[in-house]
Design goal:
Number of strands: 0
Distance between the termini: 125 Å
Structural class: mainly alpha
Length: about 170
């Protein structure tokens, strides 16, 4: 009784032996080796060109998407601005109509609401400008005071004291 030898589980029944290692092959002629190397370098160059092209296309797609998002954002801002402007106009027209009804003169209501609106915008701009410039002035003053403190700590004097001593 012959025992049948079965290949291990997962192995192919007609498995072919591994190809011979390069050390087992006969040496190639130098021209064959150069030709093979040239083909490998051409293949490598083609793969590198493929990679660079893919990266460039990826960057282009990113910029295209950023441009689309910017465009959508601008359109959204225009829509929101138009809606806000329309709401303000309707509010002011209604308010002017109410004031005009109180004085029984529509033009007087328009005039009063318009004047109050212009005065409020002017006052708001003046307050914003005053606070903004005062804060900037205080930051600049504190910056230079800090520099003078650092100079006094480091050199025993500061630029203002040194200038005063030179002029005396």
């Amino acid at each position: 009784m012959d025992a049948e030898v079965k290949p291990p589980v997962g192995a192919a029944a007609d498995a072919t032996p591994d190809p011979a290692s390069p050390a087992d092959q006969p040496p190639q002629a130098p021209t064959d080796a150069l030709h093979s190397a040239r083909l490998h370098f051409e293949e490598l160059r083609e793969y590198i060109a493929y990679l660079i092209t893919a990266k460039i296309d990826s960057i282009k797609a990113t910029f295209r998407n950023v441009g689309l998002y910017i465009a959508l954002g601008v359109i959204g801002l225009f829509i929101a601005g138009a809606a806000a402007a329309t709401s303000v106009v309707l509010l002011l027209v209604g308010l002017a109509g109410a004031v005009g009804a109180i004085f029984h003169r529509q033009w007087l209501g328009n005039l009063i609401v318009g004047f109050i609106l212009v005065a409020a915008i002017g006052m708001g701009a003046w307050i914003f400008y005053s606070r903004f410039t005062r804060a900037a002035r205080e930051r600049t003053k504190e910056k230079y005071e800090s520099l003078k403190r650092q100079q006094r700590a480091r050199f025993g004097t500061d630029v203002a004291e040194r200038a005063k001593n030179i002029n005396e």
